[in-house]
Write a structure and sequence with these properties.
Elements: E1 17-23, H1 27-38, E2 45-51, H2 58-64, E3 70-74, H3 81-91, E4 96-99, E5 105-106, H4 110-121, E6 125-137, E7 146-156, H5 162-165, E8 176-179, H6 182-186, H7 197-208, E9 211-224, H8 230-233, H9 235-248, H10 257-275, E10 281-287, H11 294-304, E11 310-316, H12 324-328, E12 334-338, H13 345-355, E13 360-364, E14 368-370, H14 374-383, E15 388-390, E16 393-394, E17 400-402, E18 404-408, E19 413-416, H15 426-429, E20 432-433, E21 436-437, E22 442-445, H16 446-451, H17 461-470, E23 476-478, E24 484-486, E25 488-491, E26 494-497, H18 513-525, H19 529-542, H20 547-559, H21 563-575, H22 580-593, H23 597-610, H24 615-628, H25 631-644, H26 649-661, H27 665-678, H28 685-694
Parallel strand pairs: 1-2, 1-4, 2-3, 6-9, 10-11, 10-13, 11-12, 15-23, 16-24
Antiparallel strand pairs: 4-8, 5-9, 6-7, 6-8, 13-22, 14-24, 15-22, 16-17, 18-19, 18-21, 20-23, 25-26
Helix pairs in contact: 9-10, 18-19, 18-20, 19-20, 20-21, 20-22, 21-22, 22-23, 22-24, 23-24, 24-25, 25-26, 26-27, 26-28, 27-28
Length: 706
Amino acid sequence: MTFSNSSSVGRAAPPLVSVIMPTHDRPAELRIAIQSVLEQSHENWELIVVNDGGGDVSSVISLANDSSRIHYIHLARSRGAAAARNVGLSLAQGEYVTYLDDDDWYDAQHLRVLVQQLEQSNASVAYTDSRRVVEQRDQTRPGKPYVPCGVQEPYHSTPFSRDGFLVNNYIPILCVMHRRDCLDAVGMFDENLPVLEDWELWIRMSRRFDFVHIPEVTCSVRWRTDGTTTTTKRRREHWLAAKVIQDRYASEVAGRQDLLQAQATLLASLKAGSEAHPPRCSLLVAFDSHTLHLRQVIEAAVLGSRGFACELVLAGCGDIAEHQIWLESLSGDVQILRLEAATSVARAWQEAAARARGEYIVLLPSDAIVRPGWMDHLVGPAEGGASIVGAKLLDADGRVRRAGGSFRPATCQFEAADEGAAPWRDDLRGCRTVEALGAQPILMKRMLFEKLGGLRVDLEPDAAIAELSARCGGRVVLAGQSVAYQARTSTGHGEKRSVVPPATCESQPLIDVGGLRKRAGEALKAEDLSTAEALLLDIESAEPDDAESWVIWGVLHMQRGEFAEAERRFRGVAERGGDEIKGGTGVAIALGGMGKTEEAWDHLQPLADRFPNEADILHAVFRTGVALGKFDGLRERLEPYVDGSPEDDDMRFALATVCVRLGDAKAASHHYTRLQQRAPDYAGLDELAARLTGAGHTPERGRSLG
């Protein structure tokens, strides 16, 4: 079934609404959210649930999915709410789109009220009001469940104001419904924002479209008194994101003192709230007189730790005047400790740790540049029980500079075990326990660091960290992913400085992406799916938008029967500048795997129009058309191709079978004869001859049947 995006004039059925629902480890709340969609009085909807790297909730989905209107995608790793929503939007088929977080719920009339408003007004965006349900733990009941203790209704009821969006987000995301094609005009959610991504999207939409306010409460949001609500526990990220958004649209408030004052008040409030909640991680950077890469190191660390509330503490004795203005612009994000001359790196880390407030501390060398998502690979093993977690540090040529090793107490030296190795080597791919770590980025609990007395400040950085990890008394783990590289390398004649571009460097790739792709493809052919996935994850850690690997991802998901995720991957190929033909045919095959054969056919037609001579597309068209019985359409596609490519025996055979199904035995006989002359041993000739005989023609080899 396909759905039209045409206007409502003469509409025979109510429009399809796509509900986008990200979820992460809240199965009980998810059940309630899904049930609220099932109970909608507007019944023409689809629900797209995107599991953002959390525990599997397929059982929750399957229990509710009796009408097959719920589509479930499980991302391999957490990518944040914005990315999860974008995945859902890439699959949405509805004329209208709305959103629901997994801990909120709709009233039964919610979709109907919004759809009626949009249909009657011909507006592009509409929003209702919500109520806030306050919850607290019931200390008297087993498990101490959350129970309602109050209701604020309406929670928000604010008329539409373009200027208002420049100050604050006054519309909860679940209140909004918009036409799907609004996103074609303004783009999707900004995945670089860890929070407030909906506010930033509403600002963009409000520049192009009017929002219609419906002053009716139609949905509910939760707020918990113990500080576990997202807006409470992630105050620091809200403050930082608000600063980014205000800076992005600063030109629109220039000279507007009323708006500027309102923005300043919001930031002050968010900052005060963030200071009451310590950061999750403290990034500790020791700097010296060599500060060439300092800004690059800090920017990569802060931007790459999206999703984690972090603070930055710099300590050292070097001259950082060239970075002073930039560092001061990070006021509140960073502490700078200037120490006396000749301070060791270990002492600088020790001083920085004394100022740290985070649950975890990360010792970050001043020349280690991390990749996006790096924090996930360190925090994950730590939450799994590791005492200290280290990242593989790669050199500029993509080889291992520092990974696991050992500490020699007699000489106070760290001996690296894997220097020069390829980071994708089999024994280095997964997380593994090691004896000691060197001066690569390492993460550990701040309380453990303090309990151990910190670092020996008389040792060199490698030895100081190795000595600490060797005596921690717990498990020392090397992260499986290669998440950091060294911005300067050592030659045999002193230090050679080289500013290495971020992880997508083409001249000096951090890893052999082409080689990894080849190995992943070979693993797929051998049906070794786990190896293929590990290789693809290594590519993704360095080049997440490598279009060719997205094709391989799509094939991997197809082999696992994960057709929705395969479709997402194949759709992403063209968006990343990849092969439109591979991506487009992959989408059609994935749709076919989900039983959406008609959609697959519709998807292939514009591709076949653009690439009428591409055999891969025509093969996909043939398979889909046969399944749907669209033989007239197939003949129109195949005949021009076969006339122009008479050597393509497979396509000629396909055309002959289409002619048989259409009852044109004469044309089929003609193609049979051409096949017999070109390839007398072609595997399908006997079958084709039998079909022709059944149609009243008795073909004979060696003579024309036409």
